[in-house]
Amino acid sequence: MVAIKASGVDAFLAKPHADVFAVLIYGPDAGLVAERAERLAAKVLEGSDDPFGLVRLDGDELASDPGRLADEARTIALFGGQRAIRVKVGGRAIVTAVEALLGGPIPESLTVIEAGDLKKNAPLRTLCEKSPRAAALPCYPDEAGARDRLIDEETRLSGLSITPDARALLSASLGPDRLAARGEVQKLCLYAHGRGRIDVDDVTAVIADAGDVGMDVAVDAAFAGKAGEAASALRSLRSSGTPASVVVGAALRHAITLHRLRGDVDSGRSARAVMEANGFLFHFRRKDSVERALGAWSGPRLTEIVAKLAEAVATGRKAAGVGEAVAERALLAIAIEAARRAR
User: Fold this and answer.
1) Quick one: 116 and 157 in the same domain?
2) Window from 26-40, 155-169, 178-192, 316-330 with minimum mean pLDDT
């Protein structure tokens, strides 16, 4: 039984188990699944000159012809050595094909199966986790540590260093998909080629998502009582294709986070101390604004704000025609109330 924990996947990829000849790589991070499948196949074919050493099979085709996988896996390489077979799971089950592979003689090939997010009781996952001849490797969206390792890998390969502030902004700007994130970091390294160091301006110019930054501006302005800035940010976002309903969703998440952190303030800690302990939750450029909001809004009032924003989000989903107006009005109401409290 080889069910690899997420923390042990890199170690397995560096040194696959000798008695394993089928590896299921699965999870919601499709980019990470593909990257790890590529890495494993490349390791198998390392040093091989066989142009037919890598075979790609479609999962839906295997579902119609289950015996083909075992046949391919046991085909002897033209020039000797090991072959790699990559199977992309589609909408149809391939458990029968994998059972035929695992139940027969040991092949000369390593089969790498790429799948999406599989539940714990999914037949394909259960089969590979329980078989001594197979391994199951989970791939979940990158955590901060994994993003930092990715940044380190690409900057080192490019002969570049990166300032702490630039690293923080870059890490916060990268999405959860590993392949997409790596592509963004490679693009940044190419942009900074020859300079020796990546700074905040480089990241802002190449990576930072203007829509996300704009939403932060609108949300922070609303909670700070700056109705004019909030309205201006909303107009800018609307012109770039980001509706107010999306911004109010971001405001709801922000209000929920503030409410949770406000509980620490109410228990006797200062807003500064709470922010220092939880600063990783926010983009570093937002920390001062968030700290001020944390000190200005009480727990009970934040509870009411969460309820009103949730209602605005629900209204937008039920009635798209009025959802935009409701969302914009909800954000501006927060700004007006914050300005009134500040007087």
Assistant:
1) no
2) 316-330
Residue 31 falls within a domain, yes or no?
yes
Final residue before a domain boundary, out of 138, 155, 176: 138
28 with 85, same domain? yes
Range of the domain at 250: 210-342
3-state SS, the chain, equals CCECCHHHHHHHHHCCCCCCCEEEEECCCHHHHHHHHHHHHHHHCCCCCCCCCEEEEEHHHHHHCCHHHHHHHCCCCCCCCCEEEEEECCCCCCHHHHHHHHHCCCCCEEEEEECCCCCCCCHHHHHHHHCCCEEEEECCCCCHHHHHHHHHHHHHHCCCEECHHHHHHHHHHCCCCHHHHHHHHHHHHHHCCCCCEECHHHHHHHCCCHHHHHHHHHHHHHHHCCHHHHHHHHHHHHHCCCCHHHHHHHHHHHHHHHHHHHHHHHCCCCHHHHHHHHHHHCCHHHHHHHHHHHHHCCHHHHHHHHHHHHHHHHHHHHCHHHHHHHHHHHHHHHHHHHHHHHC
pLDDT for 210: 44
Question: What is the number of structural domains in the chain?
Answer: 3
Residue 164 makes CB contacts below 8 A (sequence gap 6+) with: none
Whether residue 215 sits in one domain with residue 185: no
Residues in the chain: 343
The pair of structure tokens assigned to 239 is 């012109």
Specify the CATH number for the domain of residue 180: 1.10.8
Q: DSSP secondary structure string, 68-115?
A: HHHHHHTSPPTTSS-EEEEEE--SS--HHHHHHHHHSSPPSEEEEEE-
What's the pLDDT tens digit per position in 222-235? 999 998 888 888 88
Q: Is residue 1 part of a domain?
A: no
pLDDT in tens, 312-342: 888 877 766 677 788 888 999 999 988 887 6
